[in-house]
């Protein structure tokens, strides 16, 4: 599995980032950070991270998720997570971050939650 690939699509006001690969120290977390910062710069504040194809997140990747969440909140935006794999869900549960993020298994439900 390569480092992180991010593709972007719009659903109404929500920007969905379909991510695949690994969110790890180095390129993966930098790619995520740069994408989030660019979206905020463009005034896009409703962001949904689709993690269904992300096979691995290390501590740096978790840190980047938290930092992105904080950056989006500062701009009065919302960052939510979609399609967590069991591994990522367990990781967020262990780190108690599952209580911080809004997480969804269904894209329609996730999009409806932004209204």
Task: Tell me about this structure.
The protein is of the alpha/beta class. The chain has a single domain (5-112), classed as 2-Layer Sandwich (Transcription Regulator spoIIAA), CATH 3.30.750.24. It is built from four helices and five strands. Strands 1-2-3-4-5 form a five-stranded mixed sheet. α1 (27-41) links the parallel β2 and β3. The longest helix has 16 residues, at 59-74. It is globular and about 30 Å long. The model has no long low-confidence stretch (mean pLDDT 96).
Strand content: 25-35%
- Major beta-sheet overview: 5 strands, mixed
- CATH arch. level architecture: 2-Layer Sandwich
- The string of secondary-structure elements, in order, is EEHEHEHEH
* Overall body shape: globular
Side-by-side strand order of the widest sheet: 1-2-3-4-5
Number of domains: 1
CATH topology: Transcription Regulator spoIIAA
What is the mean pLDDT? 96
Helical proportion, percent range: 40-55%
- Gap from first CA to last CA: 35 Å
CATH class descriptor name: Alpha Beta
Structural class, by secondary structure, is: alpha/beta
Report the total helices.
Answer: 4
Radius of gyration: 13 Å
Q: How many strand elements? A: 5
Ranges with pLDDT <50 over ≥5 residues?
A: none
